[in-house]
Each structure stands twice: as structure tokens, then as C-alpha cells.
Amino acid sequence: MKIHLNDGLPYISASLFYQNQRLELANVLLDTGSAGTILSADRVLEVGLHYEVNDIVHRIRGVGGAEFVFTKTVDKLAINELQVNDFEVEIGAMDYGIDIDGIIGMDFLTLIGATIDLHRLEIY
Length: 124
Known about the structure:
The chain starts with a strand and ends with a strand. With 124 residues, the protein is mainly beta. The chain has a single domain, classed as Cathepsin D, subunit A, domain 1 (Beta Barrel). Strands 2-3-8-4-7-6 form a six-stranded mixed beta barrel. Strands 9-10 form a two-stranded antiparallel ribbon. The protein is globular. Helices cover 9% and strands 52% of the residues.
């Protein structure tokens, strides 16, 4: 899959599968500096993914600050043919001042055995 750069940062598109629905996420940041994968709460509402009373809530920290997120297990998260079934993601506001649908972190990248080719701007 091709990686596109936006303000010098690597973005891809991804597909989220949840309760027999599919959601295309066009603006997903590839972030090898992030341990976890986080998706925009506003975007995942489109497939009915929302906070429920029994969901685990925790605080995450990054370069931009801290925020509260909840975790959910989705049916599948995919970057073209690179996919993980029954994958736990974090859901948060992602109010970072940029247009972003999510962040793919090292949890997902290591499970799929990703190779990021910066010369060709591809992930496979």
C-alpha cells in the first residue's frame, strides 16, 4: 500500500470491521513511536462503535499531551491485505488540531510484521 506524506508525516488508509459493518478510514497516521492504535471516536460512531458502561477507560500520554480513551475489540483492522482479527483498539477524541481518523501504532505493525519502505513510500 502506498504511503502519502502530509506535512512530512506518513499516512495510509485502513478498513475497520465492526459488527458486520465496514468503515474506511482515509487519514490514518503510521506511528512507530506509538505503542498502541487509537481511532477517532467521531469516526467510529459511524458503525455504532461507542462507549459502553463496561468499557475500560484509561489515560494515554504522548508528545501532544494526555487524553482519556476507552478500549474495544473490533472484528478486524486492515491495511489492504495486512489485517488482524479480533484486535483491541483505543478510542478517543483525538483533538490534536489536525484532520486525522486514527493512528496505527506498534501493536498492529508488529502483529502484521510490517515493512515500511520510506524510499518507495510503501507499507507491506
